[in-house]
Amino acid sequence: MSLIALARNTGYAFGENRLTLVAVIILALLALCAIFGPYIAPYDPLVTSATTKLARPSALHPFGTDALGRDILSRVIVATRLDLGMAVSAVALSFVLGLALGSLAGYFGGWTDRIVGRAMDTVMAFPLFVLAMGIVVALGNSVANIIIATMIINLPFYCRFARAEVNVRRELGYVEAARMGGNGSLRVLLNHIVPNILPPMMVQASLNMGWAILNAAGLSFIGLGVRPPTPEWGIMVSEGASYIISGEWWAFMFPGAALVLAVFSFNMLGDGLRDLLDPRKRV
Amino acid sequence: MAQLEIDNLSVEFRTRHGVVRALDSVSLSVTRGEIVGVVGESGSGKSVTAYTVMGLNDEAAQITKGNITMGGIDLLAARPEAMRELRGREMAMIFQSPRTALNPIRKVGKQIEDVLQEHAGLPSRDLRKAAIAALARVRIPDPERRAEAYPFELSGGMCQRVMIAMALACTPSVLIADEPTTGLDVTTQAVIMDLIRDMSRSTRMSTLLITHDLGLAGEYCDRIAVMHAGHIVEIASTEALLDRPAHPYTRQLLAATPVPESRLDDLNSIPGHLPDLRGELPPCRFSGRCERRQPICDEAELPWTELSPAHVVRCRFPLS
Amino acid sequence: MTPLLEVRSLSKFYPIKRAGRGARLHAVDDVDLTIGAGESVGLVGESGCGKSTMVRLLGRLIDPTAGQVLLGGEDLTAITQAKFASSASRRRIQVVFQDATESLNPSFRAFQAIADPLKRLLGMNNGAEMDRRVLATAALVGLPEELLQRYPHQLSGGQRARVGIARAVAVEPSLLILDEPTSALDVSVQAVILRLLADLRARLAMSYLFVSHDLNVVRLLCSRVVVMYLGKIVEIAPAEALFTAPRHPYAQALVAAIPDPARRGEARPRLDGSPTSPIDPDPNACRFYGRCPKGADICTKAMPPLRAVGPDHFAACHFALSPHGGTDER
Question: Are C179 and C97 in contact (CB under 8 A)?
Fold first, then answer.
């Protein structure tokens, strides 16, 4: 699809759907924070200060300060890189692996399908978050392991989806025509079927992104994975939660709001993406 | 006296891409015991007509003018509850793809019982017998056993018979059959059409047969109405329509329909394509494709010409 | 003269798990057929008769359980269908699919759809030669050049039919199998496509196997017609002979069922009921027995073979030999 056509279609999709546009703007802002975080943060997120502990939001500290006197706004901004980074990495890995496994299972059936199916059933037999916890505990507390754990628990989702989508298309006329046209099985799958399932899969990926963010934040919330003093939304919510009762609401509210905003925006983006990528709606 | 009368009906659909003027001034009537065919290609508006009569249109549909009366009752003015009562009891519809039109998770006998319970007011103990009798009427062999089957266990032809049984369970006065045999084998089609015809005659039901197959309409209908792009272009008795078509579109359609005696070189295709029903439309929607077109066809209001009491055509220059 | 296509004792059985040990569904059962060079043969029968399976067998999309398919003397069934995709003979048989089955890839433009087999089967590589060939094929099927950049959903039914045909004939096959190519088209467009098909056959010297449920269309395009029932061929005849004087009772019922405005109001004998089960049918009984208006003891004792009943006319029925066998519909 040429760039001009892409731009035109994008404009069309956004014109149709204001909410998608809002979502994209928010995500663009978050992306900016992720990329330039350390440079745009007003304060050093790690610097503590005994004197300004738990200060209310003010002109000096728009989001207030936390229990160690660190500026919450700066920490929220800098944490974006970690939270989004973990989620994007996990989803990307899950997506690619799930797409591959699911497509092969859906197209070839037989033993391929059975093995992949049993593997995914095994993953899904566990309450997913508990499984993620188990994986991080087993592999060790690190960002990489959070990504791996999140990737594993999201894998069945993509795998099943890809499998179902490929299965539906396997018997269609154009697939048979592709085989008649001299395409071997793998070529049929890669060149003829997968391009058609990418749009719905990308919608799923976008919706899944929100869940992945929550997953990663959740693991940090309970103390696995990311360690303090690293700024990360989950940890910040966890730390700030103890101060709700004493009325210092800003400690958990702002990182919580960042989480909500990110998840919401990805969900909204999912809908917009579907319109954008569907070849039937192309002008 | 007509049992079903559609008078000057116009229907529009409001869509994201504009207003689609699906039907424009459609007039048609069906008397008791008559089978009238509505023949047209895709986009002609034949299904919209059927759905409008039944009150089953999409929410986006708006009836901008016209009347539909059935046995004296004004269907367009009827309240939704009244329409619900009429549907099934006084008027019934059978659809294309019978297996998908039936409830897949309910036994067919039960589905007929549902109709009887709702509309015929039979006491519960008589329902099962009445359902089996309905199946027997449509000549389903071994009806007691078949009543216990689910739609997926029955063939396409059998499912269509079940649908007919459901439709006729309360002996309605109007039956609308929307492409009832598309997708069925030709042998099954013949049996189903014979059945519809026989039931129509025996219960003096007014039947509207919607189809794209002019040959099929030719064999089973008493009169045929031809539709093009939301207009009815001609209505005549079957013999008159097939032997002396007056509208250029009808003639072209006939020339394009393969019949046993056709030869490939004689077979016609109709030039041009359907006009966009959203845009500016000339009074005659066929004029863009018509070889007899004159400037006045695009300017003045399109008249109904009566060639004989039973043969009307919507054309300024009908074929003689 | 060697016929172009020779089908010998072709069978396709599918194992069925539920109906008992070793139960098999006889989709196509011991079929013999020949198609000559430049000939147009029709294949008709009701759903479940095996014509779709025949399309897939002859198109080498599936492997037969038994039997052979020979194209110009070469045994195509010697290798599996998976290997056949890369063999040199793949280009010699092509299929035009029904539009209703989504026969065009929604994410391919028309150009790509036509170019793909050229790339895979003729080794063309996105060069000028390939472009030329695609444009030439598009012109051959009457598809205007500007439509080549469109996606299927942007094309009309007739235009999509042309793309499907172009895709199949771009590699210049010897045998073209057409599976209901016009059934999804309005009658106003059908004639053009049918004439195009007739024209192409002559120009590219192809043979056709034309599968359709619309008998009137088959009669227009085919010189010979094959009638199948429950996996077996029950009649083969020149088109005119089949439609004017069919000899097998099933073929007679089929022809009698064609809607005919000239016979309005006539009560004609109808074929009711459904076919018997295709799972492990009795090899010694006629498959049509029970549903057939005729029937005798012999029908349950011996499978009627396909026998000559006239010039180039064969029927598999014990009653078909006598010239006045049964009620003649016409």
Answer: yes
Do residue A176 and residue C102 have CB atoms under 8 angstroms apart?
no
Distance between CA atoms of C134 and B161, rounded to whole angstroms?
48
Residue C325 maps to a domain: no
Residue B130 lies in a domain: no
Domain ranges of chain A: 3-47+59-281
Confidence of residue A39 (pLDDT cuts 50, 70, 90): confident
Chains that touch A (3 or more CB pairs under 8 A): C
- At a CB cut-off of 8 Å and minimum separation 6, what does A3 contact? none
d(CA B6, CA B90) in angstroms, rounded, equals 16
For B77-114, give one letter per residue: b (16+ CB within 10 A) or e.
Answer: ebeeeebeebbbbbbbbbbbbbbebbeeeebbbbbbbb
Residue pair C129/C113 in contact by the 8 Å Cβ criterion: no
Beta pairing partners, C224: C41, C238
Query: Which residues 161-180 of C are in CB contact (within 8 Å) with A?
Result: 164, 167-168, 171
Let me know if B8 is exposed, middle or buried by CB neighbors in 10 A (0-12, 13-18, 19+).
Answer: exposed
Chain B residues whose C-beta sits inside 8 Å of any chain C C-beta: 41-42, 139, 141, 155-158, 185-191, 193-194, 212-216, 218-220, 238, 242, 252-253, 256-260, 262-265, 267-270, 273
All chains having 3 or more CB pairs closer than 8 angstroms to chain B: C
Supply the CATH number for residue B12's domain: 3.40.50.300
Give yes or no for C94 touching A (CB within 8 A).
yes
- What are φ and ψ of residue B236, in 5° steps? -160, 170
Looking at the structure of chain B, the number of domains it has is 1
* Among the partner residues B185, B264, B268, nearest to C47 by beta-carbon distance: B185
Token duo for residue C90: 């793949």
- C-alpha C271/C-alpha B128 separation (Å) is 29
In contact, C13 and C25? CB cutoff 8 Å: yes
User: What is the average pLDDT across C109-132?
Assistant: 92
Question: How much is the pLDDT for C327?
Answer: 43
E strand residue ranges, C165-222: 175-179, 207-211
Determine the residue of chain B that is closest to C243 in CA distance.
Answer: B260
Please answer yes or no on whether C104 and A185 come within 8 Å at the CB atom. no
Assess contact for C160 and C180: CB atoms under 8 A: no
Establish how many alpha carbons lie within 13 A of residue A9's alpha carbon, considering only the half-sphere containing its beta carbon.
18
Has the ipTM of the complex gone over 0.85? yes
**What is the number of domains present in chain C?**
1
Residue among B152, B214, B157, B210 nearest B183 (CA): B157
**CATH number (domain holding residue C118):** 3.40.50.300
pLDDT of residue C328: 41
Does any domain span residue C327?
no
Which distant-in-sequence residues (6+ apart) come within 8 Å of A89 by Cβ?
A: A147, A151
Per the structure, the complete domain to which residue C234 belongs is given by 5-315
CB pairs < 8 Å spanning B and C: 110
Say if the Cβ atoms of C190 and B269 lie within 8 Å: yes
Looking at the predicted structure, is the pLDDT value of residue B84 above 60?
yes
User: Is C48 a member of any domain?
Assistant: yes
Q: Which residues of A touch C76 (CB under 8 A)?
A: none
Domain span holding position B233: 2-90+172-313
The mean pLDDT value for A153-179 works out to: 93
Determine, yes or no, domain membership for B19.
yes
Enumerate the residues of chain B whose CB falls inside 8 A of the CB of residue C198. 264
User: Which CATH architecture fits A3-47+59-281?
Assistant: Orthogonal Bundle (1.10)
Of these ranges, B185-194, B303-312, C162-171, C285-294, the one predicted with the greatest mean pLDDT is C162-171
Comparing CA positions, the residue from C198, C251, C226 lying closest to residue C43 is C226
Does residue B132 lie within any of the structural domains?
A: no
